[in-house]
Design goal:
Elements lengths: L1 E6 H7 L4 H15 L3 E2 L4 E5 L4 E10 L4 E10 L10 E9 L5 E6 L3 H18 L6 E5 L3 H13 L4 E5 L3 H15 L2 E4 L3 H7 L2 E4 L18 E4 L14 H4 L2 E4 L2 H7 L1 H7 L10 E2 H5 L13 E4 L4 H18 L3 E4 L1
Parallel strand pairs: 1-7, 8-9, 8-11, 9-10, 11-12, 12-15, 13-14, 13-15
Antiparallel strand pairs: 1-16, 2-4, 3-4, 4-5, 5-6, 6-7
Helix pairs in contact: 1-11, 2-3, 2-11, 3-4, 3-11, 8-9
Length: about 325
């Protein structure tokens, strides 16, 4: 039996932020909401001594011949060592035999990409059509990928960004200004970002919420991607009381790990509060934004269907391009 091994450079040639990749991930979300996915809960290993965590995610999607098992790490002191804070890899398994067919040594690239794509899907269905200013809280990798994803589905003139580290936020502003060709301004505080933007994405691992309900205004959309663990929170729970429409990637997972679970604990979200899944929006079984003045919020915690769909796409492209090295095992 041969196993194909791909490195990050090769994987980047295979899949990127494109409409085709977005459609592949959207199909995975749709299958999840239709009950055509086998997806266990996230396994997380916390390593508090080094401010680290490792997540393991997977999902089998009916109709696909492969599924992925993803291992992703986030060690938030790595920058002091000259290392990126995130890394990881994916194993691609045969859904027919259960044998390993590929090892994707992506160093976290596929996780970054599929998370940005999920943000694009959320924006497609929930963000206002007219966006002048896109707001960003944070200046790390997802602050970049979320705006790349937004550019797939919406035009915008300006980015307004706030983050705690001045050097990091200035570097972000310079990079995105050159990459996207838009105006990028640095805000003094998170409140300014929210009040001046029509779209806001939060991308930090904070345990103390940044966003306050009083800052929300008609026509605003918020995508929250930082809170992928019970201990993380970017939005004050009362923000959900202001929302006209609430969405998430997975209701069971977000009510356990994400921003939603803080709102549930605070009794802001009740059992009868409507919360739509991205897959229901992708399949057309539920509607997204219905008015220019609606306030919408989407909670993204990252689900295994994203990892399987993006890994399958990368593997298929690699075979077509004859990339990687095969090893007999």
């Amino acid at each position: 039996m041969d196993v194909l091994v791909l490195n990050e450079r090769e994987i980047r040639r295979c899949v990127s932020m494109t409409p085709e990749a977005a459609e592949a991930v959207a199909l995975g979300f749709a299958r999840l909401s239709e009950g055509r996915v086998s997806m266990p809960p996230v396994v997380r290993v916390d390593i508090p001594r080094h401010r680290g965590e490792v997540d393991i995610k997977t999902a089998y999607i009916e109709g696909l011949d492969h599924f992925a098992i993803k291992i992703a790490s986030g060690f938030f002191d790595n920058t002091s060592l000259g290392l990126p804070y995130g890394s990881g890899l994916m194993l691609l398994m045969s859904a027919v035999t259960g044998m390993i067919e590929a090892v994707l040594l992506d160093n976290g690239y596929l996780t970054d990409l599929r998370t940005g794509i999920a943000g694009a899907i959320a924006a497609r269905h929930l963000a206002p059509r007219g966006i002048d200013t896109a707001g960003v809280i944070g200046s790390g990798m997802q602050a970049r990928y979320q705006l790349r994803g937004l550019r797939l589905v919406r035009n915008f003139r300006r980015i307004l960004v706030h983050a705690r580290t001045p050097a990091s936020v200035e570097r972000y502003a310079d990079e995105m200004r050159r990459e996207l060709g838009v105006e990028v301004s640095v805000a003094a505080d998170a409140e300014s970002v929210v009040r001046e933007s029509q779209y806001v994405v939060t991308t930090t691992p904070t345990r103390e919420p940044w966003l306050r309900a009083a800052w929300l205004h008609p026509g605003l959309h918020i995508t929250a991607v930082g809170a992928d663990g019970e201990h993380k929170q970017e939005l004050d729970a009362d923000c959900f009381a202001r929302a006209d429409r609430i969405a998430c990637d997975s209701r069971p997972q977000c009510s356990r790990l994400g921003e939603l679970h803080h709102a549930v604990d605070a009794a802001v979200i009740r059992p009868d509060t409507p919360v739509v899944e991205l897959g229901e929006l992708c399949s057309g079984r539920q509607s997204g934004r219905s008015g220019d003045d609606e306030i919408t919020i989407c909670d993204l915690t990252g689900v295994g269907v994203q990892d399987t769909t993006i890994a399958v796409a990368a593997f298929g492209a690699a075979q077509g391009l004859e990339l990687g090295k095969s090893f007999e095992v």
